[in-house]
Amino acid sequence: QGVPIRALSGTVQNDILKEYVARGTYIYPPRPSLRIVTDIMAFCARDLPEWNTISISGYHIREAGSTAVQEVAFTLAHATAYVRAAVDAGLDVNVFGQRLSFFFNAHNNFLEEIAKFRAARRLWARLMRDRFGATNPKAQMLRFHTQTAGSTLTAQQPDTNIVRVALQALAAVLGGTQSLHCNGKDEALALPTEASATLALRTQQVILHESGVANTVDPVGGSFAIEEMTTRIEEEALGLLDRIESMGGTLRAIETGFIQQQIQDAAYATQHAVDRGDQVLVGVNRFQDSSERHVDLLHIDAEVEQRQQERVRQLRSSRNDASCRAALAAVEAAARTSDNLVPPIIAAVEARATLGEVADTMRRVFGEYRDVSSPA
Predict the structure, then answer these.
(1) Are 69 and 240 spatial neighbours (Cβ–Cβ below 8 Å)?
(2) Torsion of CA 151, 152, 155, 156, to 10 degrees
(3) pTM: predicted TM-score of the whole model, two decimal places
């Protein structure tokens, strides 16, 4: 479109390590996957200075069942792995550190969640300063987006989810989030309808424009309960981080399954507490309502998939096959060396290679990862 590449701004999530411990949508083993991350950081540092090169995600860690402390610790463990890899690749922490961003979960325990965000911000600044020598205040800053917790939404009494989402969103704002997403009330049942998505947006707007909480920096600072929780979460998260370091670092903790097991144990304990009734889940194990209410749900037309398949077929029939094959060969050649992968991948996309074809090309070099802890 003629836009200078250096003028582009935006964010790529690009956090592969959380896939191994929480989400499962990986392809390659951790180490070549980490190489892709650092290649993107290096490319953007040189050619896209306004681009946020990674959004390091604690959200999926919490959705998988972690505690608040584990969400902070494992997110920052992944972040330190990315920073260390970037430093080892010769990048300046005071430059690329300014473009790091984070993505956290806003869960149900209102005060604990506020403290969690405050603890994460404080701990990250210390890690960047003390472990990596970052002197630029912007490189020490934990810039983060927050989404309310999908795993807390219930299919039973979905209107109750409106209250959950509002409290979670308020906790995120009080904790200092720069960006926010509210889930729809019906997302335990289907993708949100337009009406529920609008209500989720209105929730944010009421918090922003009517509550006044966004008008004060750290409005809960000084509260004994909040300050005590903030310090406790920071100390416990740092303890986990030190334990991971003593094991040989984040990649080693992932490869041995340590982080995965910690999350699984926490998820089991929570579900067991709900099943026993020790942890109240309104509408599920307490305050049930047997009356049936009709809920309008979003239904996706099955023809959407067929139309997309036809678009791919038309793309492949209209492109220059020789140019596409040559571009994919360049991706494979870069993958077999230490060359930056981003330029040949962009060239392959411009030659109309599909995402699947680019991924398959790197499969031939990097192989596929098989989780030894998975029964599959």
Answers:
(1) yes
(2) 160
(3) 0.93
